[in-house]
Amino acid sequence: MLFLIDSNVAITSDPLTHELEAGAEFAMEFMRLATTHHHDVRTHDGSRVDFARIRDTAKRQARLTLFGRYTPLVSPPQISVDQEAVLGRPAAGSNDEVDQLLLAAVVGNAAEYLVTEDAGLHRKARRMSVADRVLTLSDAIAMLRALHADLPRPPPSVRRIKAHQLNINDPIFDGLKSDYRGFVAWFEKVARGQRDALLIEGEAEHAALAILKREPTGEFGLPGPQLKVCTFKVADGYSGQKYGELLLKAIFEQTHTERYTGLYVTVLAKHEVLIALLEDFGFRALDGVRTSVGELVFAKPHGGDDASVLDPLEYHVRYGPPALRITGRRPFVIPIEPRWHRLLFPDAEPADEDALFPATLGLTTQPFGNALRKAYLCNAPSRLLRSGDPLLFYRSGDEKAVHVVGVCESTIVSRDPAEIVAAVGRRTVYSLDEITQLTRKRDVLAIMFRQDRVLRSAPIHLDELLGNGALTSWPQSLTQTNAKGTEWLARRLDA
């Protein structure tokens, strides 16, 4: 794959002194993985403008010399009229022009991915609908580790505990203490109040956590009852592991199980990565609403009456998971071998007694098994899948049952491993070798989807699918359900 890096990534990975830039370990790990696995790392000549701002002549020349070790893109695309219509026309020689030139390379398919820590560039990428191809360093590292898997690691557990069981001296709280004066006093108060918390443990510290509050009447004009996410944090050293999505899984399940009208979270505007995650899962900022400390308020309703107005995928994103629209759609059954089922859906495995999601020892897992947005690859000949179609993942072999339900986002068909990786690299549990093996058989159908629910207590067994007319025989490949069984499936899934 070809990765385009901005000047700051190059600077961070090439120290001039023994004093390293912030985030140097991430930049160097990305470079190590890209080099080890023979990926192409390029720069853009437009980025040289950034070095003109270095006043010290010797330092500026040193930086340009180090930057010169990278091969630049050849004949990179210019900023298009369509791009200017969305982002505006940048001033010549400005930061905005450099940003837009880097994005133009992605939009124009001169590079598969742009790697940058620049929050502004990520905002522009979302506006240009190429956010999946503009990566942070941690995202790029996680993707490369997934494509070139090392030793097996057990998946993490999300545990429901009480706030007082958290370690207030853990480094994960340092940023919160800096952002909010009086945070420690607030934490002590909620700890004494037996507030619920969700925790993912790291090797010797908290990796990710959320603190929750039940609000019978809601705030900010929101209808009660609401579940307030008071604190939501992934430790810096664990970014890229999809722990944010793993926490959201638990939060969404609690919202559904306890029948909240909705949920909300308050966020300082500077936390753009968190805001992007929330927006990807249907949270919307309340217009003109700020808290007493200047936070934005992002709310997400659970369930809605406008199912007939919204596209099925939009409906799922806004109100779920879980939220399905089966009416007018015939779901697809996707048979999946137990070994792939365990990798793609580790949370569908039997859980530890105290864990919401399992820590299945001995199973290889990747960050994308933790995620809600995933990809499934197969050699199925069917080309009927559409955005919003419900997906029933049928575990063949041992269970012969549907344990997981999803919603299709999009599909691609290709026999080119690089093209498939470029489409699904941020959300696949498949290694590059495994993808290559699939392409040697025939065209690969890559299905990008969102996980809707895990049927832990009531999986749908094959005899149910047959007996209620959803299928006429056991599924050997991607199979669309019969119209006769669709109404039954809608009732069975309460959709």
Structure description:
- It comes from Nocardioides humi.
- This is N-acetyltransferase domain-containing protein.
- This protein is α/β, with parallel strands linked by helices and 495 residues long.
- The protein folds into three domains: 2-147, Rossmann fold (3-Layer(aba) Sandwich), CATH 3.40.50; 159-302, Gcn5-related N-acetyltransferase (GNAT) (Aminopeptidase, 3-Layer(aba) Sandwich); 332-492, Archaeosine Trna-guanine Transglycosylase, Chain: A, domain 4 (Roll).
- Helices cover 33% and strands 22% of the residues.
- The protein has 18 helices and 19 strands.
- The strands form three sheets. The protein has a seven-stranded mixed beta sheet with strand order 6-7-8-9-10-12-11, covered by helices on one side. Strands 13, 14, 15, 16, 17, 18 and 19 form a seven-stranded mixed beta sheet that branches.
- α1 packs across α2.
- The protein is globular and about 80 Å long.
- Residues 359-365 have low confidence and may be disordered.
